[in-house]
User: What shape does this take?
Amino acid sequence: MRRWIEANAWTLGLAVLLAVLLLATKVIQPGFGATGLDSLARAALPFALATVGMAVVVIAGGIDLSVAAMMAVASVTGAVLMAGAGDGQALLAVIAVLALGIAMGTVNGVLIVVTRVPDIVVTLAMLFVWQGVALLILNAPGGGAAPWLRAMSAGGVALPGLPQGLTDWLPRGVVFLAVVTALIWVPIRRSKLGLRLYAIGSDPLAAFRSGVPVGQTRIAAYAICGLFAALGGLSVTMSTGIGEPIPGPYLLASVAAVVLGGVVLGGGRGGILGPILAVFILRTVRMDLTMLSVDPNVAAIIEGTIMVAVVMFGAILATRGRKA
Assistant: This one.
C-alpha cells in the first residue's frame, strides 16, 4: 500500500485538491449540490476528452495543436448527419464520426512521420486545415443531436439499491467519461502498443534499437488522439444539441491539464487519471470565479495565467529532465 501511495502521490494530491475546491464551492454557494455537479461535469466533459487525447500524444513524446479543430470537425459532422435522423441512423452517424476522428489523427501522424517535420509545426498547420473543413461542413452553429445521445450526459445515474437523492450526485457526464476512457485506454495501456507509446516517449532511439516500430507507434498515438477528439466533439453536440464549427478553448486548457496532471512534456511519464482530475480542478476554479461575481475579463486573465504558468513549469521540468 505504501509503495502504491508513493507511486500515485501526485494523482492523490490532485484528488484531495479537487475535494477541497468542491468544499470551497459549497461555502461560496451553499445551494451548490447535485445540479451544480451535473453542470460541472457537462462543462468539463469536452475538455476532459480533449485532454485524454492530448495526454496520449504527449506520453509518446509529441504534441497535437489541432485537437480543438478536430473536435469542431467531429461536432459539425455529427450534428449534420443526425439532424432529423432516427435512432438507428444517429448511431451510424456516431460511428462514422469516431472513424473520422481516427482518420484525422492518422493523417496528422502520417504527415509527421513521412515529412519528419516537427509535430508542433505539422499540427499547427493542420489546425487551420481542420478548422476550414469544419466551416465548409457547417458555416454557422446548427444541425441536431439524437435525444438518446443528449441524455447520455445530462442528469444523474440511477444505481440499484441507492435512494434517488443519492444517485443524483453521480453525474452521467462523469460516468460517460469514465466508461469511454476505460474502454479505449485500459486495453491499450495493457497491450504492447501501450508499452511502445511510453518507450518512444522516453527514448525514441533506444526504442528503435529494441525493435519498436517508432513511426507506426507515433501514428497510432495521433490516431488515438483523433478518436478522443471526435468523442470530445460529439460531447459538445451532446450538451448543446447543435454542431459548433468554431474551435473552442480546448487546446491550451488540454495542454495545461496534461502538465498539471503529471504527464511530462518530454514524454514517457504520466497517466490518464491525473490529467482528468486536473481538468475538473481547472473547471472548478472557473466556476468559483463565476460564483464570486468576478468580472469575466478578469476571470479569463486569471484562468489564462494559471494555464500558462502550469505549461511553463512543465516545460522547465521537461528541459531539466532531458539535461539530467
Observations:
- Residues 74 and 97 are 6 Å apart (CA to CA).
- The chain has one domain: 34-146+166-323.
- The domain at 34-146+166-323 is CATH 1.10.3470 (ABC transporter involved in vitamin B12 uptake, BtuC).
